[in-house]
Write a structure and sequence with these properties.
3 helices, 82 residues
């Protein structure tokens, strides 16, 4: 029984890591595509997860943009007229 619980916990952690990596790289588009191939409650769960993945994707890129603002110049530099 303990082996089953351990395996279930490891599987949950692996699925969570895969979800976060897909959410960071692609957003919810890939998850939504997989969910469209299913039906019923599973489809609703995939669409809910896709919405959460979109939120994660947007918030991460918003934070990255805010962190890079000090390094961006306000003027657009012309490559030829350095």
């Amino acid at each position: 029984m303990l082996k089953f619980i351990r395996n279930l916990g490891c599987l949950t952690i692996i699925i969570f890591i895969i979800f976060l990596s897909i959410a960071l790289i692609f957003g919810g588009g890939k998850i939504r595509q997989i969910g469209d191939k299913t039906t019923g409650i599973i489809k609703k769960a995939f669409h809910y997860a896709a919405d959460k993945a979109d939120d994660i994707h947007k918030s991460v890129f918003k934070k990255l943009d805010e962190m890079s603002k000090p390094f961006k110049s306000d003027e657009k530099k012309d490559i030829n007229n350095k």
